[in-house]
Design brief:
Layout: E1 4-8, H1 11-22, E2 29-35, E3 49-55
Antiparallel strand pairs: 1-3, 2-3
């Protein structure tokens, strides 16, 4: 798992950048916050948020390993009303 560094104004924006770069959702990323960042005063002293992110390693479930398929029953017959 290779961590890459991302920076933005906020941690959320940095996570979004990482998600785009790795082409996956943030749920599939392992994220370490390096710096929360600072807004500063009138733009002076502002510091970006910095994170390190890596794509989580997932194990694929092959069709042979899945649970037994659900058996489908025959459709129920409709009862006709006699008038």
């Amino acid at each position: 798992m290779e961590f890459r560094e991302f920076s933005a104004k906020t941690v959320d924006e940095a996570i979004t950048k990482a998600s785009i770069e790795f082409e996956t959702s943030s749920e599939n990323l392992e994220i370490q916050v390096v710096s929360q960042g600072k807004a500063g005063f009138l733009g002076f002293g502002a510091k970006p948020a910095i994170i390190k992110a890596a794509k989580k390693e997932t194990t694929e479930i092959f069709p042979e390993e899945k649970a037994e398929p659900v058996k489908k029953s025959a459709p129920a017959k409709k009862q006709e009303k006699k008038t």
